[in-house]
Amino acid sequence: MPVIMFSRTPNTKRPRHGAFSLSRRLLRGLALCLVLFSLAAQAADGPGRNAIASAHPAATAAGHEILAAGGNAFDAAVAVSAALAVVEPYSSGIGGGGFWLIHRAEDGFTTMIDGRERAPLAAHRDMYLDAEGEVIPRASVDGPLSAGIPGEPAALAHLAGTYGRLPLAESLVPAIRLAEEGFAVDAHYRRMAGFRLEALRASEDATRLFLRGANVPEEGTVIRQLELAATLRALAERGHDGFYKGEVAEKLVNGVRAGGGIWSLQDLADYEIVERDPVHGEYRGITVTAAAPPSSGGMVLVEALNILEGYDLQQMDAATRTHVIVEAMRRAYRDRAEYLGDPDYVDMPLSRLTHPQYAAGLRAGIRLDRATPSSLLPGVVDTTPKGEDTTHFSIIDGDGNRVAATLSINYPFGAAWVVPGTGVLLNDEMDDFSAKPGVPNVYGLVGAEANAIEPGKRMLSSMTPTFLDDGERIAVVGTPGGSRIISMVLLAALEFSEGRDAKAMVERRRFHHQFLPDAIQFEPLAFDDALQLELQSRGHELQPLDSSYGNMHVVIWDLEKRRVEAASDGRGVGKAEVR
Ligand code: DON
């Protein structure tokens, strides 16, 4: 990667040459100059400052540390991801996976690094069903049998090697330090550990690392993870193979199998990230670029925005506006349940689902005065989602490179099971498959054939790292929150489309509809009494939530004002910082 020197003032002086007198060598020199000139000019178009918003202050600091050492946004993304893997063990980790949506400023290249977990090769369609064909409670949520083959280590090695300026080992330094020195337990950690206490107690290593006396640690307790530091060092020293082959791989497979799981060395050796074209859409002059399958995020977001494109939301009263947004969510989430899965295993009508004319057809079925019962739409079954874990961060560096990354081990503390001797906390992402068509997962999401378990397949996700670009401002957006991730990003995109800033996007009160259950869930204070009555009179069932949800992190680059801003969700403990 060329090192681009940033200059705040665009270089407007072009060198003059008499073309006819140039030798081939000179021509080559000229071509090189032009490339360097155009790189410098594009660099000069960057915001000039680095902005990071992540779910933890130590992770934001890790990213800035790597940028200050000469790294770009992609190196910083490695540092932030790895730091979050240490200080937010309940959210993401090297035992999990995620999606890194990236944009390289120098040539405008945009791609999504798919580091999603895969089903082990020994997995099969009915692996979570009992002899009567019923789903075995918790089998896809707790312990090693619920773990997919991790993708995050491969994604970090790929990010550093293909897009970064610094060696992987350098970008992993802050995370290794955090693992060795430890981090202090806060109230959020205590809530998450309390929620998963029973499951954590079933794992000797998880109990030793994340609990004290088999109970939730007091605030301020320092959590050190020396084995995790050693595993991160193996990744730093040997890259991809440091995790997927050799000593670490053997410990992982032996540990998982001893705990009742089905991983093999072949599973680890076979794991590869995939670069995928993101999903694109247009909404009222905004170019939307978001996660592609195996995430449903981009498709649901774009389909919902396409439906909403036909309404002038700003001119509508609050009830009608909320109603049509809900109806758009309902229809887009229905299509998620019906059609989506791993693109390497299933054919999906993605271009139809994201086509404005398809949305126009759906819009025609929306009545402004009446909710459409989900049972009247063709499709699948039901329950209630949760989601306070998983993580997201947003970065724009001084050159305009950007990263939106949403990473997960699924449930709080994932499978709640640490592989002995590795410090690797396993994901329980297998629950994102449809264990049985129509039977909801922990987020209440239902799925069909397309998301059934198959060996080596990636489970469908809702993670929605997104770029929004209206020609004047570029936003990098995302959040955790299980099935509600997509509706949160949708609401944030609507805020952006109305000119609001990063803070307004993360602060917005949230509501959600996911087709099934057929109810609008909403945060405290999202709807006043009058709005609730109005929605009920249109036939909507309301499900008030007793707490808020989501943990959104947004960075916006205002191209006209040459300014960057960053905001972290007040619902979490994250930190946004521009340097
Ligand atoms: O990939 C997915 O859609 C889920 N595993 C994400 C889980 C999540 O966001 C949990 N938390 N809030």
Please provide a written account of the structure:
There is one protein chain. The chain is of the alpha+beta class and 579 residues long. It has 2 domains: 63-273 and 390-451, no CATH class; 276-386 and 463-578, 4-Layer Sandwich (Glutamine Phosphoribosylpyrophosphate, subunit 1, domain 1). Helices cover 36% and strands 15% of the residues. It is built from 20 helices and 20 strands. It has helices at residues 24-44, 57-68, 73-87, 152-163, 168-171, 173-181, 187-195, 197-201, 204-210, 226-238, 240-244, 246-258, 265-270, 297-308, 318-339, 350-353, 356-364, 484-497, 502-507, 529-537; strands spanning 51-54, 97-104, 109-115, 183-184, 222-223, 274-276, 279-283, 286-290, 391-396, 402-408, 418-419, 424-425, 466-469, 473-477, 511-512, 520-522, 542-544, 553-558, 563-568, 575-578. The strands form 5 sheets. Strands 6-3-2-10-9-1-20 form a 7-stranded antiparallel β-sheet, with helices on one face. The chain has a 6-stranded antiparallel β-sheet with strand order 7-8-13-14-18-19. Strand 16 (520-522), helix 20 (529-537) and strand 17 form a beta-alpha-beta unit. Helix 15 (318-339) packs across helix 20 (529-537). The longest helix has 22 residues, at 318-339. The chain is globular. The two termini are 23 Å apart. The relative contact order is 0.16. The model is unreliable at 1-27, 32-44 and 380-387 (pLDDT under 50). 6-diazenyl-5-OXO-L-norleucine (DON) binds next to loops.
